[in-house]
Amino acid sequence: MVRRHAGWTHRVKVTLHRVDGEVTLDVPPGQSLFQSIAARHRGLITALCGGCCVCGTCRVRVLGGDPGEMGPDEAHLRRQLAITDPAIRLACQMRPGCGLRVDIIQPE
Ligand code: FES
């Protein structure tokens, strides 16, 4: 695999697990997981702040694969929201790597 400074140089496949089955999508280089989901599967994920790393509603549970590195903004919001489970990530901040598999967590 080849990485650039800001992320992958090619599309990566991501599998979303849902109660009614799985959805597979390609995430282009530089695009967040949230952007890719919202572009192709409108309404599948909640993101009240629109991807600005403020609300925490875009949570996913990482089931496997490469979720990408966690940046300081995501780490900061996770601390504010007391998210301690390392498998829980914010889709709007994720630049996923190969083979990522996630569950979308619907906000309560
Ligand atoms: S969409 Fe609000 S934190 Fe991700």
UniProtKB/TrEMBL annotation:
Domain named 2Fe-2S ferredoxin-type is located at 10-108
Superkingdom in the source lineage: Bacteria
A Pfam match is Fer2
Query: What PROSITE patterns does the entry give?
Result: 2FE2S_FER_2 (PS51085)
Which Gene Ontology MF annotations are present? iron-sulfur cluster binding
Can you name this protein?
2Fe-2S ferredoxin
Could you tell me which species this protein originates from? Niveispirillum cyanobacteriorum
